[in-house]
From TrEMBL:
<keyword id="KW-0489">Methyltransferase</keyword>
<dbReference type="GO" id="GO:0009007">
    <property type="term" value="F:site-specific DNA-methyltransferase (adenine-specific) activity"/>
</dbReference>
<keyword id="KW-0680">Restriction system</keyword>
<dbReference type="InterPro" id="IPR052916">
    <property type="entry name" value="Type-I_RE_MTase_Subunit"/>
</dbReference>
<dbReference type="Pfam" id="PF02384">
    <property type="entry name" value="N6_Mtase"/>
</dbReference>
<dbReference type="InterPro" id="IPR038333">
    <property type="entry name" value="T1MK-like_N_sf"/>
</dbReference>
<dbReference type="GO" id="GO:0003677">
    <property type="term" value="F:DNA binding"/>
</dbReference>
<dbReference type="InterPro" id="IPR022749">
    <property type="entry name" value="D12N6_MeTrfase_N"/>
</dbReference>
<feature type="domain" description="N6 adenine-specific DNA methyltransferase N-terminal">
    <location>
        <begin position="9"/>
        <end position="153"/>
    </location>
</feature>
<dbReference type="GO" id="GO:0032259">
    <property type="term" value="P:methylation"/>
</dbReference>
<dbReference type="Pfam" id="PF12161">
    <property type="entry name" value="HsdM_N"/>
</dbReference>
<feature type="domain" description="DNA methylase adenine-specific">
    <location>
        <begin position="165"/>
        <end position="442"/>
    </location>
</feature>
<dbReference type="InterPro" id="IPR003356">
    <property type="entry name" value="DNA_methylase_A-5"/>
</dbReference>
<dbReference type="GO" id="GO:0009307">
    <property type="term" value="P:DNA restriction-modification system"/>
</dbReference>
<dbReference type="GO" id="GO:0008170">
    <property type="term" value="F:N-methyltransferase activity"/>
</dbReference>
<keyword id="KW-0808">Transferase</keyword>
<comment type="similarity">
    <text>Belongs to the N(4)/N(6)-methyltransferase family.</text>
</comment>
Length: 627
């Protein structure tokens, strides 16, 4: 299944599931966990069938028949064994009147509704996995049998059987993303936007060892790390050991399901004993190869005495107030992340922008931190990267195993003006923007081979996209992708849009819809090419074939002496300066003509509506102005 098909499947499944919720009396909070539980069950079944097929290939025969599969066969393949009553195909094919089957659950009680049967299926799955014990949702009796049956049918989609391509894992994350936007009461705390997580993972480049996320939410750091390691041709479960702490048990459940759907195992502690301010739940101080986190920002009223007793404060305690509390816990988190690292460990985390130059006791801790030489990269992130907060943030990176020539240096990147607009309230980094920012880090580290490989990737991908688009004029893009490729592609896109407009104006209504769909598809494929060429030009115009240089308004390598002269600030903007305004590729005069025409069209439409309203009022015996 290609990327476009998966995106369509994601959107279709979400639309269907969300329509069902809208027609029920359930809130997003009540709906979230059970729906994700069904996605998990669907994943478990797809993997079960795939592994069962592998086992049966070499199964010994007895009395002319293959011996049945057993639970222990699946354990050897790192897969869940599913008893019949936990298999998705069995559940989805149950008759409407399930009470007539007189089925009993694991406790021996008779089940009279589909909700009870699905609850029982979750119990049966938990019996097969110690990691999932007590984790899976069992609130399906809150659903009517009709609603639950329809949900089961929605996820009984053949497209979800491509487990090898991790289709269900992607859809699970897509649903998490959607629920994060909808569940306002939870403030989206269980979900870190994917582009931020990917940036952290890409810059840390995990390859093996212990990974801790002490504020793990729904487990995005683990999942992206797993993807990164697997894509490098390694096995994440054998190379990485995942540990998490999450105070909110609900979020920890989401995390464990998320990991299971992605084929990962880990140890996640939840509840009061997993409050990272007061407990090192896994006793990992000084033991981690990697620490990744998106902790809650600006937490107050943290008990100073309990913090002191918990340790993990290599730079001392942040200042406490008169109430013997830490008024802002940002530097507690920063201290913990550093303390967890082993002698060559790397950390990457999201933090409130204010922490990069906060004063008082924070500044003292920051000075000590910078003097270690282990602050590696600092990235400023613009507004609207979170679903429920519009404030900017920053990404911090530590590296205790820095090359000697970098020990005295920090790379500052100001990416506040570099992003893709998703909608009015949300921004993100596209896949190519993630690669481009990562490329700056490679050049800072002297890894020019990775940078050059990215340039080749641009060429390869664009060639494939142009062939697939079948637009012959775009072949000229490949003559010089990084110099004039963008102008060539953008000019062709304008011509396509003009062509589509002329066709729409000249054809009759019967043909219009069909022709419009064909032109829209053409335009979309060229728009995607334009975006990729635009990012290729952006990167090459700054660093050429592979030479790092400080770019005004974007990046700067500063030494510790320079950072000291700036009052130990770690704010990228302090160092990189302000970039000159860039040409965004939009023809101002052309755009103004378009806007003027749009206004005239709207005005004409408004006049027509007023005429209609006036006639209707007259027919009712009223006249405007005489009421």
């Amino acid at each position: 299944m290609d990327n476009k098909s998966i995106k369509k499947l994601e959107a279709d499944l979400w639309e269907s599931a969300d329509l069902l919720r809208a027609g029920s009396k359930l809130t997003s909070n009540q709906y979230c966990m059970p729906v994700l539980g069904l996605l998990f069950l669907r994943y478990a079944y797809s993997r079960f069938k795939m592994v069962e097929e592998e086992i049966l290939k070499n199964r010994p025969m007895r009395n002319g028949r293959k011996m049945p599969v057993e639970a222990r066969d699946f354990v050897a393949k790192s897969a869940l064994y599913l008893p019949e009553m936990a298999q998705y195909s069995w559940l989805v094919n149950l008759p409407e009147n399930v009470a007539s089957l007189v089925l009993t659950n694991v406790a021996g009680q008779t089940m009279g509704s589909l909700g009870e049967i699905v609850n029982n299926a979750m119990e049966l799955v938990e019996q097969q996995s110690e990691q999932l014990t007590g984790v899976l949702p069992k609130s399906y009796t809150d659903f009517s049998d009709d609603l639950l049956g329809e949900l089961l049918r929605i996820f009984n989609n053949n497209g979800l059987d491509e487990v090898g391509g991790d289709v269900i894992g992607r859809i699970y994350e897509y649903f998490l993303n959607k629920f994060a936007k909808n569940i306002a009461s939870d403030d989206g705390v269980f979900f870190t936007p994917k582009s931020l997580v990917k940036m952290i993972v890409n810059i840390l480049e995990p390859a093996g060892g212990v990974l801790l996320d002490p504020a793990c939410g729904s487990g995005g750091m683990f999942v992206q790390t797993g993807d990164f390691v697997n894509e490098a041709g390694l096995q994440a479960n054998s190379r990485m050991t995942f540990y998490g702490q999450e105070k909110v048990a609900y979020n920890a459940q989401l995390c464990l399901m998320n990991m299971a759907v992605h084929g990962l195992t880990g140890v996640i502690e939840s509840g009061d004993q997993a409050n990272s301010f007061y407990y090192d739940a896994h006793n990992l101080e000084g033991c981690c190869n990697y620490v990744m986190a998106n902790p809650p920002f600006n937490v107050d009223k943290v008990k100073a005495e309990s913090v002191a007793n918990a340790g993990r404060l290599p730079f001392g305690m942040p200042k406490e107030n008169k109430s013997k509390e830490i008024g802002n816990a940002n530097y507690l988190w920063i201290s913990y992340f550093y303390a967890y690292l082993n002698e060559t460990g790397r950390a990457g985390f999201v933090m409130a922008s204010s922490a990069t130059d906060s004063q008082g006791g924070d500044k003292d801790i920051r000075e000590k931190l910078v003097k270690t030489g282990h602050v590696d990269v600092m990235v400023s992130v613009g507004n609207n990267f979170f679903y429920t907060k519009s404030l900017p943030c920053s990404l911090w990176f530590f590296d205790k195993g820095k090359a000697d020539e970098l020990k005295n240096k920090v790379l500052f990147i100001d990416a506040r003006n570099y992003y893709t607009v998703v909608d009015r309230t949300l921004n993100e980094w596209s896949e190519w923007q993630l690669k481009n920012i990562n490329a700056i880090v490679w050049l800072y580290r002297g890894e020019t081979d990775k940078y050059k490989a990215l340039l080749e990737e641009y060429k390869t991908v664009l060639k494939e996209m142009i062939i697939e688009a079948g637009e012959e004029p775009l072949n000229a893009v490949m003559d010089n992708v990084f110099i004039d490729g963008f102008e060539i592609a953008n000019t062709h896109l304008k011509k396509l849009r003009e062509g589509a407009k002329k066709v729409a104006e000249s054809c009759d209504k019967k043909e219009k819809k069909q022709l419009q769909a064909l032109w829209d598809e053409k335009i979309l494929s060229v728009e995607e090419i334009v975006e990729v060429v635009k990012e290729a030009r952006w990167l090459y115009s700054k660093f050429g074939e592979s030479e790092y240089k400080d770019i005004l308004g974007l990046c700067k390598i500063a030494d510790i002496e320079t950072i000291e002269s700036k009052g130990w600030s770690l704010t990228p903007g302090v160092y990189v300066g302000v970039a000159p305004a860039e040409d965004d590729g939009v023809d101002f005069a052309e755009r103004m003509v378009e806007i003027h025409k749009e206004l005239l069209d709207l005005q004409a439409e408004s006049n027509k509506l007023m005429d209609v309203i006036s006639r209707n009022m007259k027919e009712m015996g009223y006249e405007l102005g005489k009421i």
